[in-house]
Specification:
Layout: E1 7-12, H1 16-28, E2 32-38, H2 41-48, E3 55-58, H3 67-73, E4 79-84, H4 90-93, E5 100-103, H5 108-125, E6 135-140, E7 143-148, E8 152-158, E9 161-166, E10 170-174, H6 177-181, E11 189-193, E12 196-199, E13 205-206, E14 210-213, E15 216-219, H7 225-237
Helix pairs in contact: 2-3
GO molecular function, one term: DNA binding
Protein name: Response regulator transcription factor
Keywords: Phosphoprotein
């Protein structure tokens, strides 16, 4: 399977509920690993002195030390995504080279976009290659939405529509399966049934009739099994 970039993350927020919501988003993301969780900047300053992280989700208004104070005090500065309930700090936040500035409560789309920026920054800094086709734009509910391919689990046919199931949610797009398949890189996605296209990186197990992607079980057409075996072998040897 394709090796994924994993960013080590920390959360600094004095709100227990807000920390829990960010923890949940991080745990659901395949490219993030939570290594630190702090309820204030003082605690974070001590913890980060001995813990290397790549990305910090940082509140700004906290007792004693603000998020800005914390960044001023730490020597090894990770990438920063500010998370706050107010917009008044947005301009100052970008003086700190912030990846993004998220308003509470955090919307999943905004979270995904911010994390994707951080992953790309990390890859560029570490000279890791990444695909120009790392995402596609689709139209759902009259809005354009960016869908990251490494988060797309499978696509299901629904009459004149297709349903895209990602690591976080699902959305419905007006399209045929054939038209949508043409948008996807053929070395990463395979049509396994008249009603399903699967992300090969997400396949965990399969037999002659079904494919398992974590908690999802999808049907496998009998005449597609050989294609699946060949495609999985190609991804492992890539």
């Amino acid at each position: 399977m394709v090796e994924k970039t994993i960013l080590k993350c920390a959360i600094v927020d004095d709100s227990t509920l807000q920390r829990l919501s960010i923890v949940k988003l991080i745990q659901m993301h395949p490219s993030l690993k939570l290594v630190g969780e702090y309820k204030n900047a003082v605690e974070a300053k001590m913890g980060l002195a001995s813990t290397e992280i790549d990305l910090i989700f940082l509140d700004i208004e906290m007792p004693i030390l603000s998020g800005f104070d914390l960044l001023d005090d730490i020597q090894r500065k990770p990438q920063v995504i500010f998370v706050t309930g107010k917009t008044k700090y947005a301009f100052k936040a970008f003086d700190y080279d912030a990846v993004d500035y998220l308003r509470k409560p955090i919307a999943k789309d905004r979270f995904l976009n911010a994390v994707h920026k951080a992953i790309n920054n990390y890859k560029l800094k570490n000279e890791e290659g990444f695909d120009d086709e790392d995402f596609i734009f689709v139209k759902s509910n009259l809005k354009k939405r960016k869908v990251f391919l490494n988060e797309l689990r499978y696509i299901e046919a629904l009459g004149d529509y297709v349903k895209l199931v990602t690591e976080f949610d699902s959305l419905v797009v007006l399209s045929t399966m054939k038209a949508f398949q043409s948008l996807l890189p053929s070395d990463r996605f395979l049509r396994i049934h008249k009603s399903y296209i699967v992300n090969l990186d997400k396949v965990q197990r399969y037999n002659s009739k079904t494919i398992e992607l974590d908690k999802d079980k999808l049907p496998l057409s009998r005449n597609r099994k050989a294609d699946l075996v060949e495609a999985l072998a190609a991804t492992q040897n890539a």
